[in-house]
Structures are given as C-alpha cells and as structure tokens.
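Show me any protein, keeping tokens residue-aligned.
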Amino acid sequence: MTGYLLDTHVWLWHVGGFKDLPKLFRETLSSDHSRCWLSPISVWELGILVDRGRITLEQPLRRWVAEAAKTFPVREAPLTREIALKSIELELPHRDPADRFIAATALVYGLTLITCDRVLMETDWLPILKSGG
C-alpha cells in the first residue's frame, strides 16, 4: 500500500478545522483524501478521550464519527493479528497502546504516518511525514 496513516489527533484536528495543524499536513490531507487511512484504534482512542472528559465533541461520539466519515472520507486500515503482534515488538519509550497500534499499522501496511506526536516523530524506524514546523 501507499498513502498516509493519520494519527488520531491529526484526524480530529483536520475534521475539526484546527488551524494549528501544520500547513503541509493540511495540504496533504486536502489534496487527495483517497490516499489517507485511519486505524479503528483512532476511533477507540477518541472515544476513550471523550469518556475521560479530555475532549468534548459537539455531538455524541457515534454521530461525530459518522459525520467525520462523510465530510472527510478516509480508508479504514483494518486491525489484524500481524498488527497486534508488531505492536508488542515495537521499541517505544512508553506503553501507550494507541500509539503502539497506530505505529504498527503504518509499518504493516507500508503507510507514512502523519503525526505531531514528538515520541513517534523521534523514532528512526517509522516512516513519518515531516512538517517542518
């Protein structure tokens, strides 16, 4: 596969029109959304953040996700056994399960990750779109 895997915050920020999303990311996401992929883990992570009160959505999660799929249709990168196994094998300085699954998904599917996450951006083994700021 070729294309881009969106980290959870990038998906959320792009759909929400967050202006601090790096210009290169906005341009890449706007130019050809058919090359953009999303892991179901991002939907799960968003739900966890909403449930814990760290993020507030303007509508219930299920409706928000459905509307996001209409306004910014992306391809789903299915969670597989290989991704689960790869997520355990990764060397990351923390054990955040969402980051592990998202990084593993990018590797298994051969996708370039779009992220602003400093921990993921500092890896030398993960293909990442560099924003330059």
In short: DSSP finds seven helices and four strands in the chain.
